[in-house]
Design brief:
Elements lengths: L5 E5 L2 E9 L1 H16 L5 E8 L2 E5 L17 E4 L6 E3 L3 E7 L9 H18 L5 E3 L2 E6 L2 E11 L2 E9 L20 E2 L2 H5 L5 H26 L1
Parallel strand pairs: 2-3, 4-5, 10-12
Antiparallel strand pairs: 1-2, 3-7, 4-6, 7-11, 8-9, 9-10, 10-11
Helix pairs in contact: 2-4
Length: about 230
């Protein structure tokens, strides 16, 4: 890429770049960070990265969203998140927040809406109007999906997270599956929608700031209600 930072962005959150990394290597880093955070050995962390091409799917019996798995051009990894099949690859910014969800009231729905808020604000910062769609987790530009969300939780510590398409290169892999199990969905990317070519490091820097600001604001709001 490379992403140009590994820095604290507020007193309890550090943003760390993993650059371009295999899915399994990033998963191992997530798992270790979850374990360390539970023991109080590290701060909450937002990992920002780009994956080598891979398909992922949650652990479920229904894998129809993968289509003909034997014909897929990239490997498939089964993981402990919710949701159907998705694609990660070049030109896509992936965010893995490792957070203690006690401070969000152990409310997974609230956490998912928070991630959508971050992505909507991130799109807006590049002049793109994005929104939610009722009953469908993720972020949309009109009828086209620009970002996907899938989370996992261990002992109320979050892992996995979000993926937002930044360049047209990120879209190719989606053509071989039913993204997130949504029939006939059209995927899009931030560069196309903004009308300007964007780099991952530029978007990642913005994502770091927006994520931190919105997390602090949400936690302050929750604290004020208690």
């Amino acid at each position: 890429m490379p992403l140009p930072f590994s820095r604290p962005v507020n007193p309890s959150l550090t943003t760390t770049s993993l650059d371009r990394i295999s899915y399994n290597d990033a998963l191992a880093i997530q798992e270790q960070t979850v374990a360390d955070l539970r023991k109080g050995l590290c701060p909450e962390t937002l990992f920002l990265l780009e994956h080598h091409p891979v398909y992922t799917i949650g652990r479920r019996r229904d894998k129809s969203s993968l289509g003909m798995e034997a014909l897929l051009p990239h490997p498939v990894v089964e993981i402990n998140r919710g949701g159907q099949a998705t694609f990660h690859g070049y030109g896509q910014l992936v965010g893995y927040p490792i957070l203690n969800l006690d401070s969000l009231g152990r409310d997974l729905h609230l956490y998912l809406r928070f991630l959508e808020d971050v992505l909507i604000a991130l799109c807006s910062s590049f002049g793109v109007s994005a929104s939610r769609r009722d009953g469908l987790t993720g972020t949309w530009v009109g009828e086209k999906k620009i970002a996907s969300i899938g989370v996992g939780v261990r002992h109320w510590i979050s892992m996995h997270g979000f993926a937002i398409n930044i360049t047209p290169e990120s879209l190719e892999g989606f053509r071989h599956i039913v993204p997130c199990g949504i029939a006939a969905v059209q995927m899009t990317d931030l560069s196309t929608e903004s009308g300007s070519p964007l780099s991952l490091d530029t978007v990642a820097s913005a994502a770091s700031s927006i994520f931190s600001e919105k997390l602090t604001s949400l936690r302050n709001a929750i604290s004020a209600q208690q």
